[in-house]
Amino acid sequence: MAVSTEIQAPRSGRIAPEYKRHGRSKGNFEMFAWLFMRLSGVVLVVLIFGHLFVNLMVGEGVHAIDFGFVGGKWADPFWQVWDLAMLWLAMLHGTNGVRTIINDYAEKDGTRMTLKTVLYLASAVVIVLGTLVIFTFDPCPAGAAADLLPSFCRA
Amino acid sequence: MSKTPAGTLYRGREGMWSWVGHRVTGVAIFFFLLVHVLDTALVRVSPDAYNAVIATYKNPFMALLEAGLVAAIVFHAFNGLRVILIDFWKKGPKNQAKMLWGVVGLWVVVMVPFLIRHLTLAFTGGH
Ligand code: HEM
Ligand code: HEM
Fold first, then answer.
1. Which of B22, B30, B64, B106 is closest to A126 using CA atoms?
2. Distance from C-alpha of A40 to C-alpha of A38, rounded to nearest angstrom
3. Which domains, and CATH codes, for chain A?
4. DSSP state of A10
5. What's the rounded Cα separation, in Å, for the pair A83 and A89?
6. Pocket flag, ligand 2, residue B80 (CB < 6 Å)
7. What Pfam families has UniProt attached to this entry (chain A) (predicted)?
8. Is the pTM above the cut of 0.90?
9. Nearest-CA neighbor of A84 among A131, A139, A138?
10. I need a labelling partner for B95 at 20 to 30 A (CA). Which of A4, A153, B61, B79 fits?
11. Mutate to test the pocket of ligand 2, among B22, B30, B79, B110 (most ligand atoms within 8 A of CB)
């Protein structure tokens, strides 16, 4: 007898409570996380390739990077928004990716919880710090040597 | 003989190796990013602090590490797009192996000019 490999649709939408894979709490979180990985991935290709091109390929490339270079970029709201989006999307995408990996390999409940707590704390610190840096940045701090600052500070 | 059914996406061959590569590069980029945001935060300390740390990056060894980071990012990005196509494009699963060769091809096309430019800049002075 040929074995059919076709997977049949469930005959009833109702699943008896004892066969549910998770309790009430989780909702659709995993589905949104899956979707977010894909949507953020598409946007990150543009943001990160643009970041690398402007910082490594244009003009003098890496040699140009110093305080004045960063000041020049963040004087422009365009690059502030660019970097902010890149920070949040890359950090959330990376954090969710590492969460998946911890769930895959850390089999003991305690280890898994500890690793994920450390992960979430580290990510939160980096996201908050990175956001503050973009918005509280002063390109012309008082008392700094003028030759270290972007050229517009002298004006 | 292995009892693994033929043609699964993730056990052995292209599907598994691209998954391993995607995982390893993803974690590496994540740890880089943690450090990267911390050192960029030095612009809030003082121009001197930022410039002093950045100056320690401007040497051939770091240039090679940067090249490795970009190689990882470019692979993860193109392979990520491949994963998205496998999930959302009707013919994606059937073409997953072919698309991996597309990923490798695009990676070479991006990396060769990048390496020429970046390593020329890094190894021929500047300042
Ligand atoms: C070797 C390669 C890289 C160099 C030389 C570099 C350089 C820089 C510089 C100079 C800044 C300051 C602001 C600006 O220029 O926009 C910056 C900020 C930033 N970079 Fe990179 N970058 C590199 C790779 C990456 C990668 C691969 C990512 C993403 C995974 C990334 C994410 C960011 C983010 C999120 C910020 C904003 C940080 C903040 O909010 O404080 N960078 N980078
Ligand atoms: C450049 C654009 C990027 C694209 C197109 C992309 C795409 C993807 C996709 C589609 C997945 C899901 C894979 C799956 O469910 O099997 C994924 C996973 C992941 N990504 Fe990215 N990503 C990008 C950038 C990044 C960055 C900047 C980081 C780090 C901060 C990162 C870290 C990860 C990690 C750790 C995973 C989990 C890997 C796993 O579960 O095996 N990705 N990426």
1. B30
2. 6
3. 38-141 (1.20.1300)
4. P
5. 10
6. yes
7. Sdh_cyt
8. no
9. A131
10. A4
11. B22
